[in-house]
Amino acid sequence: METPPSIFLRPFDLSDAEDVLKWAGDDDVTRYLRWTSVKTVEEARQHILQTAIPHPWRRSICLLKDRRSIGCVSALPRTGPRPHTGDGRCRADPGYAVSRQFWGRGIATAAVRMAVEQAFEIFPEVVRLQAVVEVENKESFGESWV
């Protein structure tokens, strides 16, 4: 595997709309997410305003060299008891999306590792992050997060 580009995580900004459209407008990128692809710059702006910014912890995955958004990573703490699992407030669910141009280069792995570290700091009640991977999403099975 080639060396992944240097990345960092930062909060989303409305100025990210054009970059977000590039990756969040790709149905292959959003196929396994809980939201549908955006189709215009305005939809990307609305997604940033209504979904990314208010999210408890969602960050833009950015290239260090130009600060361009190439995806997102999130951690969502559970809010209460779940059937048959007891109190779920000590857990959080990570998620990510990466521009197709950067698939297979270790970007998701690097971003999730950064997110895990930050999520435990931001949400002190969380003691475990657990991810659900769609069976059809075989590419994500190879990601070794931690």
UniProtKB/TrEMBL annotation:
Domain N-acetyltransferase: 7-146
Signal peptide coordinates: none
InterPro entries: Acyl_CoA_acyltransferase, GNAT_dom
Superkingdom to which the source organism belongs: Eukaryota
Pfam family, any one: Acetyltransf_3
Name of the protein in question: N-acetyltransferase domain-containing protein
Upper lineage: Eukaryota, Viridiplantae, Streptophyta, Embryophyta, Tracheophyta
